[in-house]
Specification:
This protein has 12 helices and 11 strands. It has a single domain, classed as TIM Barrel (Alpha-Beta Barrel). The longest helix has 19 residues, at 17-35. The chain has helices spanning 3-15, 17-35, 76-87, 106-115, 161-176, 195-208, 232-247, 256-263, 298-301, 304-315, 328-338, 340-348, and strands spanning 47-50, 92-96, 121-126, 143-147, 184-190, 211-216, 218-219, 223-224, 277-278, 283-285, 294-297. The chain starts with a helix and ends with a helix. By secondary structure, the protein is an alpha/beta fold. Helix 7 (232-247) packs antiparallel against helix 8 (256-263) and helix 11 crosses helix 12 (340-348). A hairpin with a 3-residue loop joins strand 7 and strand 8 (223-224).
């Protein structure tokens, strides 16, 4: 790294001091685990909590909704207690679903997660349809991730995101009055049919100052669809997106190298315990949700680390995975562990 780049990186590290301190601590812990203990079970960085598996839409690529998967929801007080146990290991939590805003007590849970439990950062993934009915929770969120696979209104399929576009756009504009635009991410799942729509969503994000995030739909929710790579329109979109990220024309989630790995299905090593996934009843997967192995229950075991230790005794170390799930968090875990300093440089360096 050139001296000028080193100075810029150091300035960025100082400017992002709390974030950097957390990352350095986790990096050192993971390095010790891998090099000294020989363990592939890395320190949890942020928890993913599925508030519900119910949903008000029916997206074809979704694998996290009833009846495909289902977990009984804990009551409000028990869920808050579960949050306390999650908080013992991580200070950041992402709430997702299903569609979390269909859960009647979601506002109460979000508010409690910040004011009572003390999470430093709480983010939510939503389809955006019901945000106007859940606006009281917005000031307590550090980030809002709204999924869109099209921006053209198509009312022909009532339960598709295309049919809900006008309502979602209105709600994004409402959220923008409460949250800074850079705290709002519009997430697009790429399929071959919606490449032109993804372009328009990217332009929409640029116009309103939102962050654009993207990943490809997975076959059976697990495997990349390599047919995308034979589509010149797909490859062209990916290359132009990476070029735009390099030039910072639009706020785009992910570094250029990470985006290339994610969207062109390049090899990476997954560290799934970095982002533990917890179902509404408190069950936690080990090492990942795709393998369908339950390590324990965070409410009953008392913490993520206790449940993971139980899972490690039951199932052993994290196995080598040849059929990688090309999900953003999985690829991020690889760069975080395998190329920490490169990721840090691309993430916090001013002007990067």
């Amino acid at each position: 790294m050139a001296r000028q780049d080193q100075h810029r990186l150091l300035r960025g590290l100082v400017a992002n001091y709390p974030f950097v301190l957390k990352n350095l601590k986790a990096y050192a812990g993971n390095l010790y685990r891998r090099r000294v203990l020989g363990s592939s079970v890395v320190v949890p960085y942020s928890a993913i909590f599925y508030a519900t598996h119910k949903c008000n839409l029916d997206c074809s690529y979704c694998t996290q909704k009833n009846p495909e998967v289902f977990s009984e929801e804990l009551g409000t007080s028990a869920t808050v207690k579960l949050f306390h146990n999650i908080r013992k290991d991580v200070d950041t939590m992402l709430i997702t679903g299903g569609e979390c805003t269909v859960r009647p007590d979601i506002e109460e849970l979000v508010i409690a997660s910040r004011t009572e439990v003390g999470f430093r950062s709480v983010l939510m993934v939503t389809n955006g349809v019901l945000l106007d009915q859940r606006r009281e929770m917005l000031p307590y969120l550090n980030g809002l991730v709204c999924s869109l696979d099209a921006i053209s209104h198509d009312p022909s399929e009532a339960l598709s995101k295309s049919a809900a576009v006008p309502q979602v756009i209105d709600n994004l504009m409402m959220a923008r009055e409460i949250l800074p635009p850079q705290a709002i991410t519009v997430s697009c799942v790429l399929e071959q049919w919606n490449l032109a729509e993804a372009e328009r969503i990217l332009e929409f994000c640029a116009e309103h100052g939102f962050v654009f995030s993207v990943q490809s739909a997975q076959t059976n929710g697990k495997f990349p669809n390599f047919a995308y790579l034979r589509d010149p329109r797909y490859r062209d979109f990916v290359e132009r997106l990476i070029a735009a990220r390099k030039k910072n024309r639009v706020r785009i989630n992910g570094t250029p190298k990470l985006l290339r790995t994610l969207l062109l299905f390049e090899e990476f090593k997954c560290y799934p315990t970095m982002f533990p996934r917890i179902y509404p009843n408190g069950d936690i997967f080990y090492p990942c949700e795709v393998l369908r192995k339950i390590a324990g229950n965070v409410l009953q075991d008392g913490s993520i680390s206790a449940a993971f230790e139980r899972g490690r005794k039951l199932y052993g170390e994290v196995p080598e995975c040849k059929n990688n799930c090309f999900l953003f968090g999985n690829v991020l875990s690889s760069y975080y562990v395998e190329d920490f300093w490169g990721l840090a440089g691309d993430t916090v360096r001013p002007g990067a």
